[in-house]
Design a protein that fits this description.
By secondary structure, the chain is α+β, with helices and mostly antiparallel strands. The protein has helices spanning 7-21, 73-82, 165-171, 181-185, 193-202, 221-240, 256-259, 288-349, 351-366, 371-383, 387-391; strands at residues 25-31, 36-43, 46-53, 57-61, 87-92, 98-103, 110-115, 121-126, 131-134, 138-140, 144-146, 246-251, 265-270, 281-285, 392-396, 401-404, 407-409, 415-417, 432-433. The strands form six sheets. A five-stranded antiparallel sheet has the order 5-6-7-8-9, with helices on one face. A four-stranded antiparallel sheet has the order 1-2-3-4. A hairpin with a 5-residue loop joins β17 and β18 (415-417).
Amino acid sequence: MKSRFSSLDIQTIIAELRPLITGAKVVNMYDVSPKTYLLKLAQRTQKFNLLFESGIRIHTTSYDWTKNDFPSGFTMKCRKHLRSKHVTDIVQLGVDRIVDISFGRGSNAFHLIIELYDKGNVILTGDDFIIVALLRFRQDGANVRYAVGERYPIELCKQPEAVTHEKIVQAFANAKKGDPLRRFLNPVMDCGPELIEHCLLGEGFEPNAQYEESFNPEQDMERVLSAMKVAEKALITKFMNNEIKGYILLKPPKGVAAVKNEALLFTDVFPFVFNQYGDAKTKEFPTFNEAVDIYFSEIEGQKLRMRSLQQEQSAVRKIETARVQHEKRVQAYHDTLQEDDMKATLIEFNHDLVNGACEIINGMLVNQLDWAEVDDLVREAKIRNDPVASAIKSLRLEKNQIVMELSEPDVDGNNEDSDGWSSADEDDDNDNDDD
């Protein structure tokens, strides 16, 4: 799912915004969130809102965004210097993901620089690019500081360079077998990985082409160069052919969203249909700007719905886990109760045998016989087939317990072995405390 603008998106949106907002008057500026701002513009009888989010996106919006009741210090600074001024231009600084909106002319001009990469930033500068206000301070290296009073270093922005055979060869210098081609072409190109993949497919490469598998560096290098030259001019060519619109990629939901029969999810937005999405389901819009507005507004709702569904699923799992654990505890209680009932029944049926064992062992202990001697006497009695000794399975004198193997009488009153009832199955069968 696309979460921020690519370089191609920025180039497209600037081309669409320039004729729309150039000459527009700044009516006001509002906070939507700590990183999102709304610039209210008026152009003759037309009014529109320019929304920009630090590090993420910029576009006009038709949605009614909730504004903070109290503007931030940065917003107050921007209001002071920009209100009632007219937009004179909007450009991309080099090929970096940085947008520069100019207001006013001459020494009274200002620049609102919106960085749409990494953590992002929004910076207000004068006509000489001296920083007047900014969202966050940062320092790049020892000599470049982004702070009030410092100059914004526009000369450090990456400038476009023509792609050459040497650059393509150098890009693959450290490539290994199985590496995707677009990983190494992306630093060389300024159009983003999606357009690179689109152009590679246009040259006949397999989807997600990989080094030394579907790509032979000795034979296919010129084909890659040809694809990248197409990528360089793709956006200009599409604009000239009036092929730039807005397309949102739709995919069926998975997991809990699929169970709830959620509608198709927005997963990407682009200015024209890439070859890799030729058979995918898309939704078309008249402009890329409109598609971006709907896309980013909808994915916020999607995130909220998915979060709600996940919370619901988590609650259902907890309830099911509690139900299973409760059933296990109830079953364990019934098993224990049944076992205790069986023990009590056997003790009743063998009352004389149990009392006899207790009296004999207690008598030995009263006579202060050693535990080892008690064991020996019980063992000797078993050899003589003494019925009481034969019923004693083991002695746990350290716990004041005797373990006996008792049998259940048959219908004729004779004792018979109970089904599976022995100390081999349960260590505590018919444990009796010594007096």
